[in-house]
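Lab notebook, entry 394. We have the chain sequence and a SMILES string for zinc ion, and the next step in the workflow is to get a structural model of the bound complex before anyone spends time on docking refinements. Request logged below.

Task: model protein plus zinc ion, output structure tokens.
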Amino acid sequence: MIIRTGVLYDGTMRAPRRNVDIVVENGAVREIRDASGDCDREAACVTPGMVNAHVHLEMSGQPDPLTISNQLNAVQRTLHAVDNAAKTLRAGVTTVRDVGANDAIAIEIRDAIEQRRIPGPRMRAAGKVLCMTGGHGWPIGRAVDSPWEARKGVREQRLAGADCLKLIATGGVLTKGAVPGVAQLTIEEMSAACDEAHRHDMRVAAHAIGTEGIKNALRSGVDSIEHGHMLDDEAIALFNERGAYLVPTLTAPTCILEHAETGGQPEYVVRKAREINEHMLRNIRRAFQAGVKIAGGSDAGTPFNFHDKYADEVVLMHRLLGMTPQQALHAATAIAAELVGLHRGMLSAGEPADLLLLEADIERDLNTLARPVAVMKGGSWVQRACAAYAGTFA
Ligand SMILES: [Zn+2]
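Result returned:
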């Protein structure tokens, strides 16, 4: 299979290459060379498949997904996850990290995709989130209230099949009564969880919005901070000192606020998102400018934040953080892939042939990412009509 493109962004910050052929063999890129002779397919622009480092596949963007998720039974939640996995892939997202699901749903979805029983992206799955009793995310959480319980929580997720871990370091938006600025799991609990997870080669993500919780999580040794909206200068220094990633999930509060009036969302969700949004707009840009590694992740599944809308996160990184289109793509491919740890998220010889055919150069029109002409995962074209379950939730 030879794919010819007018311009190739390989996922890195190297200058894009013009008029090249991508030779795909056995699911991987064999070589990239100057265009010549016949080809099988042509596109104006080719990029790697996008990588979304923060999703919840069982949540479908309902106005109050945590409550709704609790009202659904396991079969219904699983069907949502199956449907969302297909939507994700069709939208050009070829790799995701699911950072919190009921039971072992995301883990089973990951395995079913790997075994080619259902369509979907390459996946890592954290299993249940580890939170304090009554902490943010408890409806999809495993409560841990001491360092030893935290270790046990990690061991349980690993036994269930999790290949990464999610900790709740502060309150959050969607859980009633949880205050985003307030620290939740302690340094002792998170340090124990990180030690246990890293021993088993599981990377650790921490949900952290408030300043103190962000720094607690970084000092505990987490690999990434999710959200991070109230970070300060000391937190920025900690990020850079420890090489931790920031996954800013810009789409999450943006979608909640876009639907503030009409959405049927609980009042506390809109109020908390409004507060967070101000911090987010100020702080995440500063972190990017200070050299913090920003990895793309959208919190897909949260209100009106649909799994086939990840391109919006890339556009927001460009618009709100001042990234160039190529930098935003880099964050949503190679950097996110580095964090997820399944592959390098770039198009070069030997890498998986996960790629998007686009109708325009992203430097001219970044929105072109939202409507890929074709999506390839592992050397196979993704079928447009691969939705297994066309469910919508009223
Ligand atoms: Zn999340």
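Notes for the group: Confidence is low (pLDDT under 50) at residues 386-394. Worth checking against the assay data. The chain is about 35% helix and 20% strand.
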